[in-house]
Amino acid sequence: xxxxxxxxxxxxxxxxxxxxxxxxxxxxxxxxxxxxxxxxxxxxxxxxxxxxxxxxxxxxxxxxxxxxxxxxxxxxxxxxxxxxxxxxxxxxxxxxxxxxxxxxxxxxxxxxxxxxxxxxxxxxxxxxxxxxxxxxxxxxxxxxxxxxxxxxxxxxxxxxxxxxxxxxxxxxxxxxxxxxxxxxxxxxxxxxx
Length: 193
Description:
The protein is an alpha/beta fold.
């Protein structure tokens, strides 16, 4: 958990929270070590280009008890984190809100992720608009690798009524570079479309 520079000195201040997920093959250390997240955010806050916030980086792998281990890679990739929705909604978010000085409401809670973490962001975030108002995917969409998704049932039906879903969200951001592998680009573009 990243805390902003003034967290320990401004004891009465509450902060928004970004849940930031790593990509496949990485773990919760990806953003702080590879991504230099703390140095970047410290500088953005100092330059007044970002609000002070907490950033929670959770390990993106969680299977249900007794579930067999899935092989890595498509099409069983999402089985590697079949219990992550429950980890977030029943354990992680309540623990963060009870342990840290958060602004514990959906308007001040966001989720974003890289690749697999982007897929997790949309799968969890769109299914729980009561928890998240802003979502972001960096080279990762919510459809996974299994081809087209059912727009009526995906993400607890969030896509069945796009107008109603859009009114619930403050921001939904999805991007992918054109130099990504063709199948990954096609998957994210298809999810966007």
